Amino acid sequence: MADTIAAPATSDRNTVRVDLDTRSYDIKIGRGLIETAGAEIVSVLPGARLCVIADKTVAGLHLDAFSTSLDAAGIVHTVLTVPAGESTKCFREFERLCDDVLATRLERGDAIVALGGGVVGDLAGFVASATRRGMAFVQVPTTLLAQVDSSVGGKTGINSRHGKNLIGAFYQPVLVLADTAVLDTLPIRDFRSGYAEVAKYGLLGDADFFDWLEVNWKAIFAGGPERDEAVARSCQAKADIVAADELEAGQRALLNLGHTFGHALESAVSYETERLVHGEGVSIGTMLAHEFSARLGLIGEDTVMRVHRHLTAVGLPVRLQDIPGQLPGAETFMDIIAQDKKVSRGSLTFILTRGIGHAFVEKGVDPAIVTEFLKEKLEP
Amino acid sequence: MADTIAAPATSDRNTVRVDLDTRSYDIKIGRGLIETAGAEIVSVLPGARLCVIADKTVAGLHLDAFSTSLDAAGIVHTVLTVPAGESTKCFREFERLCDDVLATRLERGDAIVALGGGVVGDLAGFVASATRRGMAFVQVPTTLLAQVDSSVGGKTGINSRHGKNLIGAFYQPVLVLADTAVLDTLPIRDFRSGYAEVAKYGLLGDADFFDWLEVNWKAIFAGGPERDEAVARSCQAKADIVAADELEAGQRALLNLGHTFGHALESAVSYETERLVHGEGVSIGTMLAHEFSARLGLIGEDTVMRVHRHLTAVGLPVRLQDIPGQLPGAETFMDIIAQDKKVSRGSLTFILTRGIGHAFVEKGVDPAIVTEFLKEKLEP
Ligand SMILES: NC(=O)c1ccc[n+]([C@@H]2O[C@H](COP(=O)([O-])OP(=O)(O)OC[C@H]3O[C@@H](n4cnc5c(N)ncnc54)[C@H](O)[C@@H]3O)[C@@H](O)[C@H]2O)c1
Ligand SMILES: NC(=O)c1ccc[n+]([C@@H]2O[C@H](COP(=O)([O-])OP(=O)(O)OC[C@H]3O[C@@H](n4cnc5c(N)ncnc54)[C@H](O)[C@@H]3O)[C@@H](O)[C@H]2O)c1
Ligand SMILES: [Zn+2]
Ligand SMILES: [Zn+2]
């Protein structure tokens, strides 16, 4: 972990190993990592050609630096761009990218690189999994959310008209390069959104980390070495859970703290990111999960307030009323939740908590109690 | 192995175990198996609901029997049909099926069943792999090709405009039920096409099996217990190779005997099945592989003639001239082969042979020699 002041460029780095047998890989974390990305990739994939997939916004900001470092390492590469935004995670872009990757005549040992946020990572990862039934895959996550969450664990996919992330593959990258300096160009709203996931790791399983975040969040936002540490600790937390449960049979569900409600909210606003981005949904969902846990007598109001205080301090929304515009009623929310992929054979599974750092998976939650709870929250 | 005369309906069965750690599964082979399919599926997937995918031709012939057996076993199921034919293995059908499966609200433990030939098996398997990032998958192959080849080994996928099977996943079924009686309704041309793969298993690695086929092929075509034995021995041959090399890193390439040329032929006729079906391409490709091996001095003309004699006896095409209509020139074929997924880093990989039962993988074949060879074959 970084405990000195960040030196310029590439000297301050953390590595998190994701342990998955033959599919194990490293997540490298540090400021300026993008400038040595070429060398890092060559050491893992010697001789491979690359197809870099980026959204147009990220391409405009960081592609030059990335491409320069690939050139410096002698890596032959082509670039494919997609529009920025959640609606890019669709069948049409999936098809187009698979076809365009094939048109570049990449072979199976060559690699697809996702340079971007979670949207590009999820989409490009699914493309990598499917093209020639699996090409090597490298993630260069450029949002905080992608660095601490979506680039760890191998979930890839696109959205269907029936819901988010319902089509995809479990597919692991061979390398993840998280340059924390590229986050300097991230709009504050997106940084905050990613921070909701950082806070989640503390809340679900690591009270010490949550304590540390309450003290250090400003430095994380400002880009100090605390940012690298926060990213590394978050990746480690997720990597540990994923290593124990790669295909999401059990404990991995803990990562969905705040997400059952959060996904329902995203769906309810039709994934209109002007109204709600993923981490904002997670933030409100996390509050709801704590409030619901309090309602069930699992935690006290003081714990609810502490979470509320921290999320509010960093500027995250915490109430359903913080979402601009109309929301559907409780019954509609329940329908959305029932179709969510966290549902198992008709009974509702929720992530609840017995205190900060002590979330747990509760199967068989009574839908009637949830409906009642949501009704109150919607019309307080 | 069946060594008695087939008893009526369901009593004569063979089981081939495909050994892949936690993804191991059984292939059950026998006449009339479809009538007890429900019970077989319940024993592997208790409580699962099913979505059955079939092409319209197969649905017309065998869906009633299958559906009746599911009902008898109390299995809740829905049916989705697709048009018959290779062009169904496309992005559009993939997307439609994923969406339609989601619309049935199947959950992750529920299953998708492919009832049909290789087209439906490949497409439905890819849908199963991608929907909710992986649902349980059962194959009920109804063509000889699907029973002996495409349902074994876990390759699933669709075609791209850049070539056949270029988009897909490695995804294993939990059970394969091969009812050899459903092959009675298969047009002779499709039966022969599948038989090209049966002969391939003898040619690539089992001279005894090829001897046995030379003696018993008529009984296999007629539907005697020899058919069950041929299917079981073929599945076993493929299962052994797949178990040793699930992700096609090495020896699995032997299964491509006849396929590099065969795929190029299918591509050259734009997958128009009126002109050429898969096994016909394989048959001609297998002859070309033997002739090319003879050209390189690896086998004698007597071996070439013996293969020629058997494939001709069963009615399979063996020469490029057997394909109706114009074919492109040798250079175009080479371009097609270069884009074929069997190409590794620019050098051509072919499956050649040192005699019946002794195929081997040859990397780095000189494209110029192949071009020369093809020129002669195209303009004899
Ligand atoms: N695979 C997983 O396990 C997993 C986990 C969580 C979330 N997700 C998915 O991640 C997606 C959300 O990810 P996201 O929040 O990164 O969204 P995103 O990829 O859309 O990025 C958000 C915005 O930031 C821009 N951007 C990215 N990097 C930038 C930079 N360095 N500077 C300036 N702008 C930049 C993008 O162009 C985009 O407009 C969702 O689709 C969600 O489903 C996946
Ligand atoms: N996944 C693999 O490992 C693998 C291996 C070899 C081939 N394949 C694929 O398999 C496909 C070819 O398979 P196929 O030859 O089974 O084609 P197919 O599925 O199109 O079936 C051929 C025809 O027979 C009909 N049919 C199927 N069962 C019947 C029955 N019992 N009675 C009457 N008609 C019936 C179908 O409707 C179709 O018209 C190709 O797409 C090829 O790429 C895949
Ligand atoms: Zn999330
Ligand atoms: Zn074949």
* Annotated CATH architecture of the largest domain in chain A: Up-down Bundle
Please give the most extensive interface between any two protein chains, plus how many residues each contributes: A-B, 36 and 36 residues
Strand content of chain A: 15-25%
Specify the oligomeric state.
homodimer
Helical proportion of chain A?
Answer: 40-55%
Description:
- Two copies of one chain form a homodimer.
- Chain A has 380 residues and is α/β, with parallel strands linked by helices.
- Chain A has two domains: 2-185, Rossmann fold (3-Layer(aba) Sandwich); 188-378, Up-down Bundle (Dehydroquinate synthase-like, alpha domain), CATH 1.20.1090.
- In chain A, 46% of the residues lie in helices and 18% in strands.
- Chain A is built from 13 helices and eleven strands.
- Chain A has helices spanning 37-44, 56-72, 91-103, 118-130, 144-150, 188-205, 207-222, 225-244, 259-268, 278-295, 301-313, 330-339, 367-378; strands at residues 13-18, 25-30, 50-55, 77-82, 111-116, 136-141, 155-160, 163-170, 175-179, 348-353, 359-365.
- Chain A has a seven-stranded mixed beta sheet with strand order 1-2-9-6-5-3-4, with helices on both faces. A two-stranded antiparallel ribbon of chain A has the order 7-8.
- In chain A, a hairpin with a 5-residue loop joins strand 10 (348-353) and strand 11 (359-365).
- In chain A, helix 1 packs across helix 2 (56-72).
- The longest helix of chain A has 20 residues, at 225-244.
- Chain A starts with 12 loop residues before the first strand and ends with a helix.
- The A-B interface holds A 47, 91, 95, 98-99, 102-103, 105, 107-109, 126, 129-134, 155, 157, 160-163, 165-170, 247, 339, 341, 343-345 and B 47, 91, 95, 98-99, 102-103, 105, 107-109, 126, 129-134, 155, 157, 160-163, 165-170, 247, 339, 341, 343-345.
- The structure holds nicotinamide-adenine-dinucleotide (2 copies) and zinc ion (2 copies).
- One zinc ion binds at residues 149, 197, 259, 278, 282 of chain B.
- Chains A, B: Residues 80-192 form the 3-dehydroquinate synthase N-terminal domain.
- Chains A, B: Its main location: cytoplasm.
- Chains A, B: Its EC number is 4.2.3.4.
- Chains A, B: It is found in: Cytoplasm.
- Chains A, B: GO terms for molecular function: 3-dehydroquinate synthase activity; metal ion binding; nucleotide binding.
